[in-house]
Amino acid sequence: MCVKQWAEGADTAPMGLYDLHQRNQINATRHSLSTTQSEVMDQRRRSENEIAALEQRVERLTMLCEAMWELVGQTTGLTGEHLARMVDQLDARDGERNRSHTPGATQCGCGAMVNARVTHCQFCGEAAPARSLFDMI
After folding, report:
1. 28 and 83 belong to one structural domain
2. Which of 100, 97, 94, 103 minimizes the C-alpha distance to 129?
3. CB 104 within 8 A of CB 92
4. Could you tell me if 95 and 108 lie in one domain?
């Protein structure tokens, strides 16, 4: 179709290079969006599976803790009241009473403070000072 026919009222305009470029860009964007949506859905499924696995792990750990506490109570005579007091003491160690224990930093031989979650001093490379086994978890 020539420009004259289009100007006289033909149904479609002539397709120029810019129009072809725009159509290509639109198609590429649609394809990219489709791929992104698929990737998001895959990531969502993986996240949901990880959450379910973590929930099962927490349930197993809870049951294990209950069993250990039952054994400790039966063999030592300690009560739930003893346990509650110890939980309060542990909770207060990090300076906040929030039912969460955040291990604090310790001082390395070089004098730097070393985060509880690292194994070596970030300044001198020396092994981090010894901590409670539970701080390493």
Report:
1. yes
2. 103
3. no
4. no
pTM, full prediction: 0.51
Helix (H) or strand (E) holding 55: helix 17-76
Phi, psi torsion values for 107, nearest 5 degrees = -90, 130
What is the total count of domains within the chain? 2
In a domain, 59, yes or no: yes
| More reliable by pLDDT, 59 or 17 | 59
Say whether pLDDT at 93 is over 60.
yes
pLDDT in tens, 50-63: 999 999 999 999 99
Alpha-carbon distance 106 to 128, whole Å?
A: 8
SS3 120: strand
What residues contact residue 88 under an 8 Å CB cut-off, 6+ apart? Answer: 97
Collapsed DSSP state (helix, strand, coil) of residue 13: coil
Residues 27 and 86 occupy one common structural domain: yes
**Length of the chain in terms of residues written:** 137
Which three-class secondary structure state does DSSP give residue 124? Answer: coil
pLDDT of 2 strictly over 60: no
